Amino acid sequence: MPRAPAEVAYRAEEVVSQLLQRLAGSLRFPAAHNRARCMELILAILRGLPGDVELHEDSAKAAVNHLQEHLNDKDAKVRELAAVALCKLVATQEAVPVAEHAPFKAIMGLLQCEANKEVRAAIVSRLPLDSSSLPLLLERGCGDDTALVGQQLYLRLRQDLALVAEEGQATGRVAASPQQRRELLWSGLQEGRPEVRKAAQELLGKWFVEDAAGDLARLVAALGPQESPELCDLVLDQLAQLQHWQPQAWLQAAADSPDPGASPRALAAAAPAAAAAGLAAVAPARAYVWLYACRQVDQLVRSSGQAAATRMAASAAQAEASAGAQAEAVLDAFLPSAADMAQLCLRATQAGPAHRYVAAVLLRLSALPSFNWVDAASRAVALEVLQQLIAAPALIVTEDTPGRTGPNVGRLPPLGCGGGGQWEDAVLTLAVAVLGGAAAGGALVESCLPLVLSLAEQLGVSAQTADTAPEGAVLQVLGYLRLLMARAGAGVPPSASAPLPPGIQATDAGGDTAAGVDQAAGADDGEAGDEDASEPRISLEQAVRRLAGHAAGHASPAVRAAAVRCNVALALREGGLERALPAALSVVAPLLPLPGCRDSRGSSGAASAGLNREEAELQQLPRRAAVQGLVDLSLLWGEPATTGVLRRAVAAAAGTAQVAAVTERMAAVGMMAVDGAEGGAAAEEGAEPAEAPPPSAVGVVQLLLQLTEGLVRKLQGYDGYAEAAGPAADALLGCARLVTQWGSQRRLAAYSRQRPARLAAFSAMAPELAELLLARLELARVSPALEQQPQLLAAVRAALGSVRELASQPNASGAAYRQLMAAAYLPAARCAMALPPLPGAAATAKCAAPDLMEAMARDLAAASAAAAEAAVAQLVDEAEDAEDEDEEDEAVASQPEGGARQQQQRSQRQERLAEVAAAAAQLGKMVLEELALVAIERDEAAAAGSEADASQGGGASKRSGSSRVRRSPLDTHGDKAAQAYTEQLCKAPALLLPEPVLAAAGGDDLAALGFLGRRAVRFAESELRPDKVVTEAALKKLRDLVEDVENTRQERAGSTALTEEDAAPLLEALLARLAVLPNQDEVAAEVEADEAWDLTTAGSGDQAQQPAGSSRRSGGGSGSRAAKSASTATGRSTRGTRSKTATAAAGSRARRNDLRPVREDDGDEDEDDGEGDANAASADDSSSDDGDAVEADVVRKRGKATEAAKGSKARGTAAAKPTSSQTSAASVAAAAAPAGERRSSRAAAAKATEKMQVLKDKDKVAAKLVRLSQGEAR
User: Fold this and answer.
1) What is the pLDDT of residues 60-90, one digit of tens each?
2) DSSP code, position 594
3) Distance between CA 1150 and CA 1198 in Å, rounded?
4) Most buried in the list 62, 92, 478, 748, measured by CB within 10 Å?
5) Which long-range contacts (CB under 8 A, 24 or more apart) does 1173-1177 make?
């Protein structure tokens, strides 16, 4: 008799559970193929289970335990099958969220550490999805660098990820959040790997066809056109490429639709009631598709016309013209006339804040070339509409109705209501189109500036009330003024004027403001006439002074920031160097971290403990605007010119502050009256006026480095670094912009020198300053402060990639960038010793220096190799051209000097290639010498310690008296970071000098590299390798490089080995350049936190580890942040030496910070009592008055060691130059004898001892080498 169905089902579940448990228990086979076979059987059983069958709980737990054990199996196939089987077991238990299952956590742990890409791809493609597991899968899968894993991730999402959650519809698919949709499509559709990009396109296609049912507006609404317009453009581009839609056909269908809201023409032609209903039905997504489709079809019209004009064949030209005519007909059917479009824009604006986004789209549509604004009637209607849009406060500063939401609500608040300027930009887009396009900047100012002034008058914003008017009103007026200047173009000078509105003239009649406007307008125009006398005018400069001048003292930080941006925008115009630039920097200077130059509002506690993070970020707006404006001005007018004007502005501000302080003191003792009570209170407290900083401490580069210093050095009193946000992030981006534009500024400076009559004098940033900025960017790339700021980190990496590309050019600009990269290598590497290892580094890593050094070396080597390849291609082309010319000139070809000329050509070719490889070769020399000196210093440090012990025991030797202070001490005995730095020094030359670069190097460079390489290998083998400071593998790389260098040199004709005597000047120059590297104490020193602006010190307890002033560590440095701007901004602070003689002490003072600009003729500087700084400051002030402040800001020149070595008597006065030795070349050569050469005679030993005694009293750098020779002689 057959059994009941329930009994059969129960019996089947029991059998399957027992079989599964037995198979899971048999997974301990020693052979991998047996374990894999058991896994396959288990997986087959799980796949064959019906949906209504449930395994026994005990059997399921046992199977899960056995499978989890084999997630760590040594066989990749077994791990893959175990992970897939666990995914099936997790999927069968639907009552609990997936992420809470223990097997899921184990699978995610395997996914994090799995090295096999097939295993990772199998996990990603089968992992169960729900709302809890989806974020974890996206976090791990999107960051995988394997194409297979990325492809499987998008295929998995295509199967189970829905576009939006459908109400009342249970599809079994997980709905993606808006942020997840945007990130997936943005990264996937721009993926460089074709497999991943194709899978992302399939995901997009399914979302469009199935989830959005082919409705473009529905898809765009899910992506958010207001939040991510760039993504919407990308998605619509991809859909058009995939043939899912055609913009022209879509517009034609919309034009043929009877719906009054289907097209702008239908809206304009409908009756008022129908038009209002149609406008209410237009969603922001549909309006966005209107704009995108019309732009695409308009581009088709123009491209077809150009193609028809250039086609040679008549049939092809006719076809192109026909296609263009059809596209133009579609636009005519979709869009209304120009006058109707202007009226439609006004009606949409009047419909209320909920329709302002649609109105902005209509305004941008009005700028299409399809509209004829040349017609006088259409232009008159448009100007009237513009007057209402700009000068009507009721249409602009309107509070939005809260609580109203829906798909058809498109809010776009104006600046006065917290907007970002999109609405105002759309209005000015219509104005530009109506008034003649981008070339009509003067007409735009003529027509729109009076409207802005009228708006200001109606909102109560004037010169007298700009600092007390409502915040929204001032923001609206200043925003319109700034955007008007931007839309007018940089070619419109600050003196461009417009008629002064009659209402404003009547209001201010008889006052100082009106009189100033009339007189200044006539002076600025420079053209006296009857019209100027009858019609008062106001220039852009006067409007900015009128509206933004007093706004800098407003209580709102947003208003103060807007005032700064207006002043900067005025200075960025042609002709703004004379007056607008000083005026802008006088507004910017109080917002920068300079002593004696403070903002009167909010600068001394903007991020204090009483403010939360949001309030602190709001208080940072003025300084952020100042930093951004300072960078913009430096890019336009040049860093030297901007620095010179900034110094004058700071000096003027300090003088004003001192006068105010004296006035307050006089008022306190009753000698004179002062308005207000604050002055007396300040005087009673005894506040001293802040002195002006020395001009050498003021500069664009110095300020940027000071603001970003907390990103690469720890803060005093805090556990970490400053947060990479606010002014610090802006300053870091400014460093990137200045470095990437440095080459173009150098070309512009050269062009201005060659053609002074056609272009005003322009100066580019000094190479030494560009080197500091590049070193800061390299350090920021490996700093922990940027780990939580992926966008900022991506921008820094993009800037460094641009530098590498610029350095790959075989021209003078590429050579300058390669020299820049080489010069920044060792300073950045030294400073990176204080940074922790990068995430994902080896467990033995002690600091970020090795990774940074490897990356920088590879970048320079790649740039040098690319430049060499391009130079070879150019030389081949030039040789072929020369051969063609010789063949045409038979007389030249028949001359017997052909062989000599070929030899000359080969010589010129080698010279050009040597120039390409010069930077890498020079850095290779410095690295090799640095390695040798580290080994020497390690030996001398050990010898000094043993001699000290002997001295304490009464047995002091003669060598203890000759002990010296090391050049740049590195504790390679106990400091792991110093050991890692030294280890990488052995590996760096091989990375810097690959075969293409080595083949391009010149003969002199090869000889020097060979000599220094042998020297470095000898010292590393004798001093570093026995104590295991460097590994044998690293030392082998160094030996192999030296062998390659020698082989290349021997193959090169005319290249001889470098002798010890010839190497003396080379060693002098290298020692002079290495002497300025920051030592270990300077690298580890902490920077004082700027409590007024660093977000790390902001008020909430979960953000600040402890109050900045409550617990300072004793070894963390001293002095205020502003006072240390000249010494700590580069990590190369001033280093005093511990010499026993006064002469050696004076020579040691020569090693100063690269950021302290000192003129070469400033020889009376004294660092001990501070008089030198005062002299330098006065000299710089006087030179600034003469207009030469830019030239005075020259960083100390390096590489002049030969001249410095000859002037031993001038060592006490030449404190601005890094002298390395005052001895003759012969003495240095004798001191630098190789270790293999033995002095066997007493005369040689006595001679070496005598030379050592003479040199010991003259220079510690030469004494270092003499100490070495003495030890070798013994």
Assistant:
1) 666 676 677 767 777 888 788 878 777 777 6
2) B
3) 12
4) 478
5) 1173/694, 1173/696, 1174/694, 1176/694, 1176/695, 1176/696, 1177/692, 1177/694, 1177/695, 1177/696
Query: Where residue 685 falls among pLDDT bands split at 50, 70, 90?
Result: very low
Identify the three-state secondary structure at position 837.
coil
Helix 580-588 vs helix 557-571: crossing angle, to nearest 10: 150
831, pLDDT greater than 60: yes
Distance of CA 32 to the CA centre of its chain: 50
Distant-in-sequence, close-in-space partners of 814: CB < 8 Å, separation ≥ 6: 806, 807, 808, 863, 867
Taking residue 241's Cβ as centre, other Cβ atoms within 10 Å add up to 9
pLDDT beyond 60 at 222:
yes
Cα angle at 1215 between 1211 and 1221, to 5 degrees?
45
Q: What distances in angstroms separate CA 1007 from CA 1017, 1107, 1209, one per listed residue?
A: 15, 57, 33
The contacts of residue 71 (CB under 8 Å, 6+ apart) are 79, 82, 83, 86, 106, 107, 109, 110
Query: Can you tell me the distance from the alpha carbon of 41 to that of 521, in angstroms, rounded to the nearest whole number?
Result: 91
pLDDT at 752: 86
Instruction: Kindly state the greatest CA–CA separation across the chain.
Output: 123
Angle between helices 825-832 and 849-888 (to 10 degrees): 170
Greater confidence (685 vs 187) lies with 187
Query: 986 and 1038 in contact (C-beta within 8 Å)?
Result: yes
- The burial class, CB within 10 Å (0-12 / 13-18 / 19+), for 7 is exposed
Q: Which DSSP string corresponds to 431-498?
A: HHHHTTSTT-HHHHHHHHHHHHHHHHHHHT-STTTTTTS-HHHHHHHHHHHHHHHHHH-TTS-TT-EE
Residue in 916, 915, 919, 970 with CA at minimum distance from that of residue 940: 970
Closest residue by Cα to residue 1071 from 951, 868, 1225, 929: 929
In the block, tokens 């951004």 appear at 628
Beta bridge partners of 497: 539
Q: For residue 538, what is the enclosing H or E element?
A: strand 537-539
Domains of the chain plus CATH, in order, are 1-160 (1.25.10), 438-504+536-595+615-667 (no CATH)
What are 329-362's pLDDT values in tens digits?
A: 999 999 999 999 999 999 998 888 888 899 999 9
Q: Measure the CA–CA gap between 902 and 29, rounded to whole angstroms.
A: 74
Q: Rounded distance, CA 206 to CA 204, Å?
A: 5
User: Which carries the bigger pLDDT value, residue 305 or residue 1211?
Assistant: 305
- In angstroms, the CA 733 to CA 737 distance is 6
Q: What is the DSSP letter of 975?
A: -
Across the range 387-413, mean pLDDT stands at: 64
Closest CA to 518 of 533, 530, 502, 498: 533
Q: What is the pLDDT of residue 323?
A: 86
Residues pairing with 715 in the sheet: 1087
Confidence of residue 949 (pLDDT cuts 50, 70, 90): low
Distance between CA atoms of 1068 and 1060, rounded to whole angstroms?
A: 12
pLDDT over threshold 50, residue 1197: no
> Distance between alpha carbon 626 and the CA centroid of its chain, in Å?
18
- Residue 1044 to residue 997: CA distance in whole angstroms: 12
Ranking 93-97, 629-633, 940-944, 1105-1109 by mean pLDDT, the lowest is 1105-1109
Q: How confident is the model at residue 783 (pLDDT cuts 50, 70, 90)?
A: very high
Give Rg (Cα) of the chain: 37
Dist. CA 859–CA 836, nearest whole Å: 22
Question: What is the C-alpha to C-alpha distance for residues 531 and 737, in angstroms, rounded to an integer?
Answer: 46
pLDDT band for position 5 (50/70/90)?
low
